[in-house]
Structure formats: structure tokens, C-alpha cells
Fold this sequence. Notes:
binds FE2/S2 (inorganic) cluster, about 45% strand, Rieske Iron-sulfur Protein, globular, three-stranded antiparallel beta sheet, mainly beta
Amino acid sequence: xxxxxKVVTTQEVPVMGSRKVVVGEIEIAIFKTKSENIHAVNxxxxxxxxxxxxxxxxxxxxxxxxxxxxxxxxxxxxTGGDCGCTEVYETKVEDEIVYLKLG
Length: 103
Ligand code: FES
């Protein structure tokens, strides 16, 4: 059965920015794009563990602050010629509250 957990309110995530949350031992970055779409991905860059929550959000992607890999926020995959993937989590928004689907 789906396990939805409440993490933040939509107002707590800046547009074209992120908010870091910790669920159990997993650090998750919640992003809000310019179009106000919400995404949740593991906060760890698949390259060398840069913190994606500190990256720059553009379109539906984030650029890692460490070495500028661009990660697709829908798939968690590195774009361009880079190869790697971080975990993405399904989200839903109800009454301005962001829920993550885990398990
Ligand atoms: S750690 Fe993210 S690009 Fe290198």
C-alpha cells in the first residue's frame, strides 16, 4: 500500500529553488520550478555526491553546484553526455501540502 508522507508546504519551497528534508536516513531535495511544478529527488548528485538542493534550477532540471552536471528532475538522470541517475520520488500536493510516496 502506498505510503504518503507529509514533508513541507508549497510555500516553504521557493520558486526556482529547493528545500532539503530528511526522511529516515535519506536526504531529499524538494524542488519547485518556474512553472511551480514540484519534484523530489535524492539530494545526492550521481557524479560525486554534490548537494543538488544547492544547485541552480532551470526548466525541469537542476545544475549541480559541484561540477555542473545537469540532472533531469523528472527522471533523476544526468543529461548531455554525462551518465548517472539519482533516485526520484513521486509527489502530490493537497491543500498546499507536499507529500512524498515512499516504499
Ligand atoms: S558532484 Fe555533481 S557534478 Fe560533480
